[in-house]
Every structure is written in structure tokens, then in C-alpha cells.
């Protein structure tokens, strides 16, 4: 809905999918889960079909700026005066920082945590490793959590989809072979092996 051009057919399909998804969620979650924010999704496609793309009428930037102005309030009895004084102070500092040779918030280098934004061309899939976050903390992941994070990144990457399909075909052939030999039923824990075997399969076939 935030794209520059939207199609009515896409909004109608999205409306049907939202209705179906909420119906499935109602069978899982308690009624207290469905607050006004969850219900808002029902009206967004219809609103987009009537009013057009969201970026022409989005109020998020205005609301963020209003929230910034509210942060200037330190005297509850003089709200307007506090906002005016804080706004004037902020604008004065911004104006003066243009004439400073030292580092300011206008020319401060972005904190990327020492990460290089571009990687060499030998990387087959990922050509950008992203940016570091301010206030980051180091977290040591155990082997299971690292594998889950690794699978999450790969499973949500479009270029890896052909390899996922190839791995699924290989896994299903193995499953059918086991069924023919032992006559066992396919259970959910058994099918969870699809994710568990991906790591070894990928290292065997993709690292050649």
C-alpha cells in the first residue's frame, strides 16, 4: 500500500486474505488479542482503493514530529511556551552547527560498527551486509540459535528458492524411500527434518 502505484485487484485480493487470516487467528488467540490495531487491517485495503496510495496522505511523519515537540514540554502549566522555547533552541543549535568546523550532528559520520558496506564480487548472493545499529550489544549465540537465524535469512531470500526446491525434492525422495521400506506414517516431527537437514545439504551442494 506504500508503493507509488497500486492495483485495485491487488487490494481486493489483500482484503480477502486479511479476512481469512483474521478468521484463522480467532480460532487460536483469545478475544483480548484483537484490539483496534488488529482490526485496523480490515479497513486498510478498502481505504487504499478509495483514497489511493498511502504515501500521499501518510501522517506518520507528522505524528513523529509532534512527538518530538511534546518532548520539549517541561512545564505543564505552560505547554505552548515550552514547545516554542525548545523549538527555538533546537533550530538555533542547528543553524550554529553549520559554521562549526568540529563534528556536529550534521556532519557526524554514521556509526557502522566498522562494517564495510560493499563486499567483493566473489560473494554469490549477498552483496550488501547492511549497517550496524547505534547502541548495539554483543550477543553470543549457541549453535541451535545460530542455525535457526541462518535458516531464517536463507529461507526469506528469493535467490535461494531454487536450492530450497531442490533440497525438498531430495528430502521427499528420501522420505518415500523410508516409507516403502518400513511402512511408517509421515508425522509432523518426521517432516521437521526438512529444516534440520538443510544445513548439511547446503554445505555439501552449495560449497562445491
Structural commentary:
There is one protein chain. The chain has 208 residues and is mainly alpha-helical. 56% of the residues lie in helices and 0% in strands. It has three domains: 8-58, no CATH class; 62-97, no CATH class; 143-205, no CATH class. It contains nine helices and no strands. Helix 1 runs antiparallel to helix 2. The longest helix is centred in the C-terminal third of the chain and has 22 residues, at 161-182. The model has no long low-confidence stretch (mean pLDDT 77).
How are the SSEs ordered, and which strands pair?
Blueprint: H1 8-26, H2 36-51, H3 60-70, H4 79-97, H5 143-155, H6 161-182, H7 188-191, H8 193-196, H9 198-205
